[in-house]
Design a protein that fits this description.
It contains 21 helices and 2 strands. It has 489 residues and is mainly α. It has a two-stranded antiparallel ribbon. The longest helix has 32 residues.
């Protein structure tokens, strides 16, 4: 069936169109190429998801050789639904950037920017799709360079400093992942995740120390790239200094691809039988809790709105590692679901924050008092997104926290619910004041002119689409969770 080639076609479309952009070198045409290629990828992703739901998971061999000698894509429920999420969010962010990117970077760098965006999304999807860990490493390196590129392209002192920190930390993470791949290959003679598991499950008792070291290398290496606390120190600078659309992509998508790869390696490569026998899950659980709480504490003390939203990402990634660390099928299901809810929500929050900074000229939260009168729709969208982060019922943030609490009880760890509640309260502490001071208070609103700094509706449409998608994910959460659970089972 031709539908089985759709994942490869998506990656190729994004890569090929990326290298057409410098040849065209006209910013409006380049913007159109990037947006159209991403929309086509979204259509292919939706068709692929429908095919998987009807026909089941499948493997697609690339080249002349089948696995284990050739490269293979493994496409199941999780890979398919993540592809839809990645291409949808990227489409909305690119749509928004068409109106805003000229204000963030020099005009002559716009073709390069969209080249990097297409390469980045293509490489992230490659990480999600591939069943070959060395092929995943190649995509990791491509994605790392593209990620650094969309931060440093702003070419300001703070961007260069943030990119250097990001690059150094990412290289460290990549090196650890490569060492993990080498250890796995020495133990199994395989690079395909399916075949790695088949070999390991029969002889893992022969390599007790090597197994522990290998799992540690993958966990730390991918933990750096997915901003697992306390390996997150590159994230606030990179996300807050980057162009608005770059911040949205980095927070919503880049971190998620590495978290998905960690899940694939731990749960499909090693298997629960192996990882349950060492401390990796306990460590992930502890670090997840630390990220949830301490990331939120750091966010409270931020005065820059983009840095606040960036530290919120550290906290939200904590929920993902919390779910992975529970060591249950339901916990991993919720980790994947939280990635989806967080992606659509956090991309909308970053775009709203960027719009506010663009129109007011202020990044400091204290100087944004009364902005709700000047930009009611923009701050209104930001407020709705923040409700999900806090955990208001129906929205995906609440669904994640509710089911993570139930999953903690099922895992025999009911005390963990306390940390979920604390994190939610901390989320409210730093999100609510922005909207309250923006909309209310006689002193805050004094001298403000109604809608004087509003963004045109056409520029806010992609943000509105993301908020609608966020609400839709919350309403359809049970169906989405069932789809993900089937993919894990």
């Amino acid at each position: 069936m031709i539908i089985k080639s759709f994942p490869l076609m998506i990656v190729l479309i994004l890569f090929i169109t990326a290298f057409i952009m410098p040849i065209v070198n006209k910013k409006n045409i380049v913007k159109g190429i990037s947006l159209i290629s991403m929309f086509i990828s979204l259509i292919f992703s939706i068709a692929n998801l429908r095919g998987v739901l009807i026909g089941g998971k499948y493997c697609y061999s690339i080249g002349h050789f089948d696995a284990p000698f050739g490269i293979e894509f493994y496409i199941g429920n999780i890979e398919s639904i993540m592809a839809v999420m990645f291409t949808f969010v990227a489409s909305m962010v690119i749509w928004y950037s068409i109106y805003s990117i000229d204000k963030d970077i020099n005009e002559n760098r716009i073709p390069l920017y969209y080249l990097l965006v297409n390469i980045l999304i293509g490489s992230l999807l490659g990480i999600v799709f591939t069943n070959d860990i060395f092929n995943a490493f190649v995509f990791i390196e491509i994605g790392t360079l593209a990620s650094c590129g969309i931060v440093v392209i702003k070419d300001k002192k703070e961007n260069i400093k943030a990119t250097l920190k990001y690059l150094i930390m990412s290289c460290l993470g990549s090196g650890l992942v490569l060492m993990g791949i080498a250890f796995l290959y020495s133990m199994t003679g395989q690079l395909n995740i399916t075949y790695i598991h088949e070999v390991l499950i029969n002889n893992y008792t022969n390599y007790p120390k090597a197994i522990v070291v290998t799992i540690g290398l993958f966990t730390i290496g991918l933990g750096v790239k997915s901003a697992m606390f306390p390996l997150h120190n590159w994230l606030p600078d990179a996300h807050s200094s980057a162009p608005t659309s770059s911040s949205a992509l980095l927070s919503a998508l880049v971190l998620k691809a590495f978290a998905i790869l960690l899940i694939k390696i731990l749960y499909r490569g090693f298997g629960l039988e192996i990882i349950a026998g060492n401390m990796v899950l306990d460590i992930l659980l502890i670090l997840g809790i630390a990220g949830m709480v301490i990331g939120s504490v750091f966010a409270i003390f931020q005065r820059n709105i983009k840095r606040l939203v960036a530290y919120s990402t550290v906290a939200q990634m904590g929920y993902i590692f919390f779910g992975i660390g529970l060591g249950t099928e339901f916990g991993v299901t919720l980790a994947v679901f939280h990635m989806i809810g967080h992606a659509v929500t956090k991309s909308a929050l970053f775009l709203c924050a960027g719009a506010i900074i663009e129109k007011t000229g202020h990044k400091e939260i204290d100087k944004l008092r009364g902005v709700g009168k000047e930009m009611p729709l923009t701050l209104g969208l930001f407020f709705i997104g923040s409700l999900s982060m806090i955990g208001i019922p129906v929205l995906p943030g609440f669904v994640s926290k509710w089911y993570l609490s139930l999953s903690s009880i099922r895992a025999g760890k009911p005390m963990l619910i306390i940390f979920i509640l604390i994190s939610s309260l901390l989320n409210a502490v730093y999100y609510f004041p922005i909207s309250i001071n923006g909309f209310f208070g006689e002193e805050n609103l004094k001298g403000k002119v109604y809608k004087s700094k509003r963004k045109p509706l056409k520029e806010l449409l992609p943000v509105m689409m993301l908020i609608i998608a966020m609400i839709g994910v919350g309403i359809a959460s049970r169906n989405i969770i069932d789809i993900i659970k089937l993919g894990i089972g």
